[in-house]
Every structure is written in C-alpha cells, then in structure tokens.
Amino acid sequence: MKFKFFDEINSTNTYLRRQLRIEEFEVIVAKNQTDGKGKRDSTWISSEGAALFSFAIEDRYELDEKITIFTGYIVYKVLKNYIENKDKLTFKWPNDIYYENKKICGILCEKVRDYIIIGIGININNTDFGIFREKAIALVEITGKNHSVQNIIEEIVETFQNELYSLNREWEDILQIINENSYLKDKKIIIQQNGKFSGKEYKFLRVDRRGKISLIAKGDSDEIKFSSLEFKVL
Ligand code: BTN
Predict the structure, then answer these.
(1) Ligand 1 nearest-atom number relative to CA 37
(2) CB within 6 Å of ligand 1 — which residues?
(3) In terms of CB atoms within 10 Å, which end of the chain has fewer, N or C?
(4) In terms of pTM, does the model score above 0.70?
(5) DSSP structure string for the chain
(6) Is-contact 113 99, C-beta < 8 A?
(7) pLDDT band at 162 (very low <50, low <70, confident <90, very high)
(8) Where's the BPL/LPL catalytic domain (predicted)?
(9) Which atom of ligand 1 is nearest to the CA of 38?
(10) Whose CA is nearest to atom 2 of ligand 1?
(11) Whose CA is nearest to atom 3 of ligand 1?
C-alpha cells in the first residue's frame, strides 16, 4: 500500500482530484485539513487525531450506485472490531456511520474522469467538535483509549481492496448487513421536497439494490424511493 502524508492540506479529496495522473489505491492522508469537504458542499471539520484520508479507484465495476454504501459497509466492518457494544454502531444512509445517536464517520465519494475518489473522515482520537459537539463522537470516547490512526486507515484500505472484486457477487449479503444495522430502522423521518420539509411522516423500509432509500408514508400503501434525499429523523 502506498501512502502520501500531509501535516496540513486543504482537502485530501481535492488533492486527488487535481492530480493529472491518479494512481489507484495510493492513499492520501492528512493530519489536518483546512478545507475539508462534506456532502452537498458542506464543510467537514477536521482536526488532529482524526483519520482523514482519500484514495481513488478506477470506475470499472458498475460502481456508481454502490460505492458509497460499500465504503460505509467496509468502515462499519472495521470499526466494529474496536467496539464492545457492537449493536450501537450503525450505518446511516447514504454516507455516515453512527454510534448511538452521534456520527463517528462521514464518507464522500466523487467521480473524477474515469475514477472515483473515496474520501473518509473518522473521529478517532479527536474530541473537539465545536458546534457539532452534540452530534459527533470519537472512537476514543467510546473505548476510553487512544488508537493508532495509521493502523485503522491501513485496515480499512486493505479490507476495501480485498472485498472490492467480489462486490457485485456479494452485494445482496452486503445490503442485508447494511439493512440489519441501519440507524434509520424503526425511525420516523420527514423529508425535504422542493426545498421544504413537509409535516408528512415516513418510515424507513430499506436500502435497495441500487443504493436507493425506500420509504413509506404514514397511511400510504406504496413505497417511494430516492437516490438522493435531505431528511430529518424525528
Ligand atoms: C460527510 O459526512 O458529509 C462526508 C465527510 C467526508 C470527510 C472526508 S475527510 C477526508 C476526505 N477529504 C475531504 O475533504 N472530505 C473527506
């Protein structure tokens, strides 16, 4: 596995995106990011002690719809080994890993030319979350001890590499694990449509084969699916 380390960089995703030649699985790691990117142009607060890294893969396995879910599954699988209370670790569609009601990891996959850049941020030994204090948690807070950020990054990239080639074959099993351990299971949510949240309540049903979220509205009999959605958990 090849690594490039930075004490500080704007964003490991942006760094890879700007490379003229992208090398598959070269891992860009930063101690700190000055312009960490989250989904929908949000900012990812980055501080030392977190795992902040990105790598790229060629987009050749019909990956588009699956890659974020697959990456979440890999991170979930690795982090679970560090945690005693495994049931509290869950996958939140489309790109987060939660511990109880707090986020421990966010994933940002971006398509660039013939590649997909996979950016992962995990709170490991960092505990300063600023305004996100109520919504975020770090591995150190769960286990009561510090962990090697480098070891966790290596484990994730290695597991990712090993399982990528069987992704399509194993997809149904991966989905089953994701759905059994979904943060949204049994939760009621409200959704944003045309820029507004309506009062209508929905129940999460599952993540489907194409990586879409499947919901059912209270009182309705038909399920509806979205490939991208803003929602709030009630
Ligand atoms: C999200 O939760 O919205 C996704 C957050 C992804 C953050 C990681 S940190 C490493 C990589 N570089 C970035 O700028 N973003 C991703």
Answers:
(1) 14
(2) 11-13, 33, 36-39, 42, 44, 52-54, 95-96, 106-108, 119-121
(3) C
(4) yes
(5) --EEEEEEES-HHHHHHT-SS--TTPEEEEEEESS-B-GGG-B----BTBEEEEEEEES-SS-TTTHHHHHHHHHHHHHHTT-SSGGGEEEETTTEEEETTEEEEEEEEEEETTEEEEEEEE-SS----GGGGGGB--HHHHHSS---HHHHHHHHHHHHHHHHTTHHHHHHHHHHHHHHTBTTTT-EEEEEETTEE-S--EEEEEE-TTS-EEEEETT--SEEEESS--EEE-
(6) no
(7) very high
(8) 1-168
(9) 3
(10) 106
(11) 38
Count Cα atoms within 13 angstroms, Cβ side, for 160: 26
Domain ranges within the chain, ordered by starting residue: 2-180, 188-233
Q: Ligand 1, from 8, 10, 13: best to mutate by most atoms within 8 Å of Cβ?
A: 13
Q: What is the pLDDT of residues 40-95, one digit of tens each?
A: 888 888 889 999 999 999 998 778 889 999 999 999 999 999 999 999 999 999 99
Distance 218 CA to ligand 1 centre (A): 34
Amino acid of residue 211: G
Specify the ligand 1 atom closest to the Cα of 96.
Answer: 2
pLDDT single digits (tens) 201-217: 999 999 999 999 999 99
Distance CA 118, CA 11 (A): 12
Q: What is the pLDDT of residue 132?
A: 82
CATH 3.30.930.10 fits 2-180, yes or no: yes
Average pLDDT of the residues in 6-14: 97
